[in-house]
Structure formats: C-alpha cells, structure tokens
Write a structure and sequence with these properties.
The protein is built from 10 helices and 9 strands. It has 296 residues and is an alpha/beta fold. The chain has one domain: TIM Barrel. It is globular and about 50 Å long.
Amino acid sequence: MKFGIVDKPGDFKFILPQDNAGTKKVLGGKALKKVNYFVGCAKWNRQDLKGFYPRGTKDELIYYASQFNSIELNATFYRIFPATTVEKWHQKVGEDFKFFPKVPQIISQFKRLQNCAAEQSAYLDSVAHLKEKLGMIFLQMHPNFAPKSFEVLQKFIENWPKGFPLAVELRHTDWFNSDIAKAVYALFEKHKISNIIVDTAGRRDLLHMKLTNKNAFIRYNGANHESDYTRLDDWVTRIESWVNQGLKNLYFFVHQNHEQASPLLSKYFIEQLNERLVLNLKVPNFTEKANNLKLF
C-alpha cells in the first residue's frame, strides 16, 4: 500500500482525531457481550512477506491462515478469479478464517461504478464461493472520484445486493471536508455500508473517524518507522473506547511500505488488544527468523 507514503515519517505527529459526532450515536452507547476481532495483512504472497514463511513451506495460504484469522484480499482488485481457485482458498483455511476481497479495478477504477453490471455479477459469483468464510467485500475508489459523482455512488450502493456485506473507501478529500459528508454518511447508514478509515502518513484527512454502523474497518499503513508502534497503541485505545460504546466487529488490516514487516506489526497489535481489552485472541507463533524482522 504505497498510497500516502512520505519521505520523513519522523517529522509527523501521528495523532488520531476525535470521533465524528455521529459515531457515538451509531454505536449505541452500550458494550455488547460479544465482539469479533479480525486482524491480518493484505497479502499472503511469499515475495511480499519475505522472511515470514518457515523454510520448506509448501502452501503459503495454509501457513498464513495458521497464524492469522483474516486477510485483506487485494488480489481480487486485479482480476476476477475462477470459482475453482476461490473454492481452493476456502478449503485451505480454518472454519473461523475470513477473507475480505477487494472489488476489481475494472468496476471501481476503470468503469467508475457505471455500466459494470456484468463485471459485478461475475465478481460476486466468484467470491460467493468463499461461502461462510467471506467476511466483507470492500470497494476502494480512486482519489479523483469526487463528490460531483455522488449520484453515481448512490445508485451503485442502492443496487448493491444486500447479501454481500460492503465497506467503501473514498479517497477524494472533499467527501469529508464539504457539505456532502452528511449525505454520504446518511447513505451508508441507510444501506448498512461500512465506512472505511485509512490511517496513512500523507493523507491524515482520511481519518474521518466516522463509523456508519457497528463495524470498524480500518486500513492501517505503517511507515517502516518506530512510530508505527505508538500509532498502533493509539488505535488500541480508540478501539477500546468503541467497544465500550457498542462496537460489534473490528476489521483491522496492516500494510507497510515494505510489506515484509506487516506480520510483525499485526502480531504486536493483537498482543496489545489482548492486554488492554483482556482478550484471548490467538497470537501468531512465528519462527525466530520472522520474529527478528525489522521495520526498517
């Protein structure tokens, strides 16, 4: 995830903004008895996660799923996979594992949500083979997809099949810094769309801190810098607050400018959640080599 990278992350003050006023209302104000936590990386490819896999690993997905309970599936951004491939993914992971597949770029970037019914149908037919292991689909729009296209976004969301949970990431700053924000949030709330929060150094405006349902879908982009740890600590504090207010599901995916450190940070984040919220989430058990990976 190269989006929002900066040359000197040490020059930034990584402070999480206060919650949007509407977040508390959406959460309801009362902690739930059960909260689901899904934490993982964006990819399982050996080349991206260099040093993570033990020597002799024959199947990367099987090993990855033995360490984490979810994956932000960026591979589906580039192509629509045949059902046979998706079925194999389903078979290789445990019953509690969830995939969070990205909407293909042909829909989001090239056709920009218009005249894409055939592609959308093919994509949904594909990811439907994940069955109960399909977590939430996420749609990422190009930074130049601006509020002038609100009606396009509205029509797409209104026609989205209700059986497929959807999260949306908007990147043009005016979605959050203009009067259109209220309309977007109302649209998402009405149709139960999760509003993705992006934490990346060069685009602090994307930390809108507005939840539109009881799901928090967070895409965290570290900077391969020591500040990555304190930034994650701050997220644990914020998530604890949301849990106390009624959060139901946390989807938290860690990216790095150099992805090989993503498992290391994901593990740290899980450990901090366990400690602060008194949880018993499974902590990845890495090899000595993987545990010694460096951020930079």
